[in-house]
Amino acid sequence: GKDTWYEGELEVRRRRGGGGRRLSDSGKKDGEDDDEDSKPCWIVDSFAMPGKAGSGNPAGVVLLPEGTDSCKPELVEWMRTVAKEFNQTETAFVWEKVEEGSEGGKSGNVSGASSISSGGSGGPETDEVHYSIKYYTCSGAEVDLCGHATLASASVLFDLLGSGAGGKKRRHVKKIFFHANKDKLKAKLAPGASTGVQIHPGDGQGGCGKKNSVRICMDFPWRSLREVVEEADRTAILRMVQKAFKLSDETIHKNLLFVGIDSVGEDVLVEVTRDVLLSLKHGPSHINYDALETWGGGYSRGVILCSQASEKDIVIAPDGERMRIDFLSRFFGPKAGIPEDSVTGSAHCTLAPYFGAKVGKANVVGMQVSERRGVVECALEDGACEGEGRMKKVRIVGTAGLAVGGTLFV
């Protein structure tokens, strides 16, 4: 009564150490060694809409061994290959830093415990840990910052580190610092979030149910806007947007409110009226993505279309309360190999300060109105109370829901 192919597949899984494991398991089975070529991996829906499966922005997460040397050309090529294999807008590769100390910069192992990737258990309590993070798009291009992939990575690590999650607890961690190419990003569990992401097979909750989701709070850099006033550049940007979304001259000129570029030259921001933004359809049959690359000016990543929200824009928060949306947006990144991103946390480094000033609030909520949709809560921290020389930052809160967990053999 046995199926030869099925039994053979089970045997392969047993030999590789894969199959049927919880997110919080170490990846080893009793009496078995890990396959040196295998890596634990996940897909997480970041900035998911509360209670709505299939929302948010999926990101891949791959855990690498402690002290990985990301400068090796063969590793860079491998990460590019894996990101293409995952085919998500971004895949994050994370590994523990062994020479980074506390916030004050003291060197040495930050936790005093073995790396989670090596399966150590029962580590001591520690206030913080430090991880390196690299981001690659589905085209294999590296990007310096990605909000939803950082959120996904934080949700995975808080569970694996034992921050209130079920399974084997490694460490009781309050903060995770991610060291990206240009930024140091802090993540912690949002107030009221006492558990990490957990797998509950068959609970019917989907990717954002309460049992397999968690709210994460992250500190991101504050990015100001410079208005584009040069006539040639402004006209070129408007023509680019007009051609991409097939808008008439009358529509673009009557409904255009602002054109700017962020302080690091990555993204162009174009504010239009709410009616125009919501009238734009989704998908390649309605959008000429190539047109968004035609401006030869100084932007290197993406185009943000946005508008102020209305009193009609409300979602139900995780605590059941009605949450007012302050602004709406869509993000297009053809220069980074991403036609349209579902929810872009890093774009809110620019969106939140802009709309915070516009509506006169230090706490604002954005909704990205892509096909999947997602919600990003933002708090503006100007650093004034933190001492001289402290940088402004945008504190971003989002819901991460586990979608897939397994083992990578590439």
Strand segment count:
19
Amino- and carboxy-terminal Cα gap = 33 Å
Radius of gyration: 22 Å
The average pLDDT score comes to 81
Q: What is the beta-strand fraction?
A: 25-35%
User: Assembly state here?
Assistant: single chain
In terms of structural class, how would the helical and strand content be classed? alpha+beta
| Topology pattern, helix = H, strand = E | HEEHEEEHEEEEHHEEHEEEEEHEEE
Q: Considering DSSP H and I runs of 4 or more, what fraction of the residues is helical?
A: 10-25%
Biggest sheet features: 8 strands, mixed, barrel
Number of separate helices: 7
Based on the model shown, name its key terms.
410 residues, two-stranded antiparallel sheet, alpha+beta, 8-stranded mixed β-barrel
Quick synopsis:
With 410 residues, the protein is an alpha+beta fold. 20% of the residues lie in helices and 31% in strands.
Folded structure, characterized:
The chain is an alpha+beta fold. The protein contains seven helices and 19 strands. The strands form two sheets. Strands 1-2-3-4-6-7-8-19 form an eight-stranded mixed barrel. Strands 13-14 form a two-stranded antiparallel sheet. β15 and β16 form a beta hairpin. The longest helix has 15 residues. The protein is globular and about 60 Å long. The two termini are about 35 Å apart.
